[in-house]
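Q: I'm writing up a methods section and want to include an example of the input and output format. Could you take the sequence below and give the corresponding predicted structure tokens, formatted cleanly so I can copy it straight into the document?
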Amino acid sequence: MTKSASVLLLFFTVGGLLSSPTWGQGLSGRIQEVRDRLERDRYAGSAEHLGRLLYTDCEVRMEEAPIADAVAWLAGATGVPLRILDDNKGQSGIDLSVEITLDVRGMPALTVLEIMMEQYEDDTGEACDWQLRTGRVEVSTKDRLARKSAQRLKRYPIQDLITNVPNFDNGPRLDLGTALGQGSQQGGGNGSQSLFQGGSEDPDLPSAAEKAEQIIELIVELVEAEGWARNGGSWASIRYHEGNLLIKAPDFVHRRVGGYPFRPARTAGPASIKKSDGQGPRGARYTEGRTEIPGSGTWEAKLPQRNPANIKPPSSSVPPKPSGD
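A: Here is the clean output for your methods example:
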């Protein structure tokens, strides 16, 4: 190979490396790509379970079915491993004898699940909820879901919320009258007055710890107030440390504080029907890398009011299937 050919080959090789996406991405970009991939792999199962609950549109009619059978039917319709934590062995949990009545069409499975929990709470007076755990979705009373083994410690950065932004509204003012008067005098010298008047010292601003305390007070008041250790509960605890909130709580509490750090998979369950009448919203939004479920736990998942003349009966009644356990 001639010398000129070797130079050309080296030139094209270096040019190809510099123009490749990997080279242009840089080390930090490749590290972030690996982190994103690991994050997706970590939450892959939870993203699929949440997606099936959100994107499976259900049609079901059941009259006074035991809640165990109702949840078992929903698990079969969505393909989601729904696990009821009942009140056996003296533990707090779902009373399996409570009966559920439903008549819905084209409603997201997550909304159907929350309607079941609403009926359970109306019958028993016990608050219940659902939460994502590794490989399954748990359904039970909040006391049972918040057991010590289900509590996880998470860090929430809040530095951007507690940083004091300067607001220069106390600066001195230029007195033009004094400036013009001194300019017309001869030999003003050292006896001249300052051209700037007014101004004041910087106001006292709250410290980062004080601002963090205000945020903590809002959280423990608005999110599962009865469960925080500060309020005498045993479900969750919270404290501030160096620009972060450290929260130890079960999944259903973390869900309301910060949402889920992944996008739900757009996967429908095997019994999903075509949503034709718009009954029930999806009840979730994905923004800035997090999934928020605003209606979750607020017990607002009511059947919408519709004109009875426009209601068509389902083509077939779908009876609940026994759990088989």
